Amino acid sequence: MTIRTLVWGENVHEQTNKTVAELYPSGMHAAIADSLNRNDGIKADTAVLQDPEHGLTAERLAATDVLLWWGHAAHGEVSDAIAERVCEAVWSGMGMIFLHSAHFSKPFKRLMGTACNLTWREAGERERLWVTSANHPIAEGVGPMFELENEEMYGEPFGVPEPLETVFVSWFQGGEVFRSGLTYKRGAGNVFYFRPGHETYPTYHDANVQRVIANAVRWAHNPARRIADPTAAPNVPVDEAPEKITERGARLHNPGEDGFR
Amino acid sequence: MTIRTLVWGENVHEQTNKTVAELYPSGMHAAIADSLNRNDGIKADTAVLQDPEHGLTAERLAATDVLLWWGHAAHGEVSDAIAERVCEAVWSGMGMIFLHSAHFSKPFKRLMGTACNLTWREAGERERLWVTSANHPIAEGVGPMFELENEEMYGEPFGVPEPLETVFVSWFQGGEVFRSGLTYKRGAGNVFYFRPGHETYPTYHDANVQRVIANAVRWAHNPARRIADPTAAPNVPVDEAPEKITERGARLHNPGEDGFR
Amino acid sequence: MTIRTLVWGENVHEQTNKTVAELYPSGMHAAIADSLNRNDGIKADTAVLQDPEHGLTAERLAATDVLLWWGHAAHGEVSDAIAERVCEAVWSGMGMIFLHSAHFSKPFKRLMGTACNLTWREAGERERLWVTSANHPIAEGVGPMFELENEEMYGEPFGVPEPLETVFVSWFQGGEVFRSGLTYKRGAGNVFYFRPGHETYPTYHDANVQRVIANAVRWAHNPARRIADPTAAPNVPVDEAPEKITERGARLHNPGEDGFR
Amino acid sequence: MTIRTLVWGENVHEQTNKTVAELYPSGMHAAIADSLNRNDGIKADTAVLQDPEHGLTAERLAATDVLLWWGHAAHGEVSDAIAERVCEAVWSGMGMIFLHSAHFSKPFKRLMGTACNLTWREAGERERLWVTSANHPIAEGVGPMFELENEEMYGEPFGVPEPLETVFVSWFQGGEVFRSGLTYKRGAGNVFYFRPGHETYPTYHDANVQRVIANAVRWAHNPARRIADPTAAPNVPVDEAPEKITERGARLHNPGEDGFR
């Protein structure tokens, strides 16, 4: 079984910033997809903001098992309708991984229900990611910790709900900490946030980062058949109740009528 | 210390449905506020959909410790901007209680990050709410369970994230179950969902329901000073890092510049 | 890859109660193992209380990926040392599934940290298990709910910590509810509690129950290499700190000395 | 209402180590109790390992709203029966706060259900505790972070279950991180773990540490009447079922008989 993976990138700084273009000549999304494609059982493709419908048609989402999202400068250019479509795909069972500055992307804010804010500093300082959940499948193979010599700092408080599990916590040279690997479930979809990945550093060329992302793709994949209508709120007619009952009192709706939304 | 409480009602069926108007001649919001005002330490006021800005100006939210929300037929008439304002108030520390059909209200869906769907049946059947968290402050005084002789059924799966705590689970005469009391935290705000309250039954006149709602107001109240800007993502300049560091590598932003959103 | 599964049964009522012996002539553990062995990728064996060391030597636990536990009349006859050995195996990464009356077994109480109590009634009443987590892998293939025509009732409050996820909630004919499928993580081990299985009813011959148990075995399996010493608390010598530091102030221990326990 | 607080200390190093004796001439427990007694609404007393029954008789626990626990060198000298009595008090509703090396105390390991292990280093290095849950009542008044110039390092992975909420995460000068403020619920009791407090440093004289501990006492206090028998598993006779049912099938127990344990 192959996990159909789609790496979405906003693809802006790769076009406008010399440092980023040199680090990721085919784009960050392509670098991430290339590293995923070196794993058996994962088949990664890419889509970008500039594609029609941002490359995220209903058909393509239906054929995607796990979606990765990297965005930073152009969160506001993502269509509200497409962001909602992505969330519905998650609720129906698509796995989703948010990378670094995607903490402020529309789908992440929508799925978390919070402000998703943090403190930050661009100084190329050392980050050390500690595994806080021993033997978690997402941390497989990276040891008790790993280091990134140059990264942007993200600091607490991170404005997200309590996760299902905290997998990584980061130490920063400048004195801050950050919960940098967090798991969530939203509907039938598994969601993972992974902190590293500032575009002016070679983070997505790092072997440990690549390994965590591949692990996360496998973890996020829910093999169950996708839920056909993940927002349906079906009426159960009185005569189809599991136990026999007789209707009593006043009601608002006629039999079979849709509920209010 | 008095908890400044605001009960928001959409106030539609009270005007259009004879059964509802007879049960709640001053409106459901007024009935709920009246019962809250019989508790020492709670001062409850009301607001309705039809008020200017739905009665939810920034000033009023800033002066509200706990907001209760009942809506059903007119979720779509609530302004997106005001729904977002309500969510920001929660993130800043305002407590919030969602009642019954408010599971499909804009603020609840926004705060949960999920579809918030369920199954339902209007048959006036018996509901029995069991306390699943012994001695939880929200369940204080109602015993191990209490019954409502006539209620609408809501059935699982309830499309919400795993709660911090499950306080009540409902048994329905027709054979379904529902997690009917759930706690969440969103930013600095405590959030409680409480299932009962279909408008064609006298649920908000029930002493146990009134007691749970008053308990929930006390539980949801966060006495800390509200966070001034709950969505801020401040830059920490290099020379203000807690530990002395030297900037390295390329950066996107000039010192003091705002981040992307 | 085959999941090495061990079904542990206390094997008491099968020997002393005619009804149980007729339902499960080879023992409940054997019936459960037989049904598991009809699944590709699962190889199930059995062990019983009466075996030397209850069949749970260190070597056998080390070679077990997932352990299932059924006990009722003889919880007190399980050796404390072996119960602790089982818990350490869980912390090292062994999956574990507790069935029905195992809620009062020594390993379950030890892993939960709570009283694990509940209310109960033996009346052969109808139980209906509703899936509360849509598309959860443990609920794969059983539909939105399934029924057991005759079961013992277990009622809330169930004295356990909040789970990672609530997968099933049961409706009982007599009016109670119960959170009957709960997931936990303890160290590197995945833990699942599954309610049905009173010994005087044919529950473990039910196709849905068998399916859930097989699903749970797959879910609980952590393929990572087991943690060698899951209770170790290693000292990090000053000169092996990730960042260079100089020792300051008074200390209790000499370099390399073990900590207190 | 006054919160009846009891600070338990093992009181060993205060008697045997010159540094500790000079820092805490009346004992660490006394220093902590003294600082708590400077708060309105808290009345703190002390008990030590060397007292009869370690100062923790059933009567005294019944009259204690919140218990604090500090131990390090003598965990093994605490009676198993008294540790279990303490846990039962928590399940019945007593709040409990575990300080620093109490992570390896018998009651903490029993309540967590895990190994509670970590890595450590005694080097008097700098610790900086960041608030990860904005406006959490336990963090009231300490700002976004606070520093301790000399502390023992505790490093991840910390072998505990996922908490209800992560309130503090620590940064250490030597390069490690630690989740240093964690909330749990066990039965009706609120539990908080707070990391700082190595006995050779003046940590319990620090104003921020004192403030957090007083905040935690208020947070942990459950004002509900204590549960009389927190381990009871009562039978519900068939004729007392909430819904009328008729007994069917075979049963193990006679009416009114106790269940197995």
Automatic annotation (TrEMBL), chains A, B, C, D:
Residues 241-261 have a biased composition (Basic and acidic residues). Residues 5-220 form the ThuA-like domain. Gene3D superfamilies: 3.40.50.880. Residues 228-261 are annotated as: Disordered. InterPro entries: Class_I_gatase-like (IPR029062), ThuA-like (IPR029010), Trehalose_catabolism_ThuA_prok (IPR009381). SUPFAM superfamilies: Class I glutamine amidotransferase-like. This is Trehalose utilization protein. It comes from Martelella mediterranea DSM 17316.
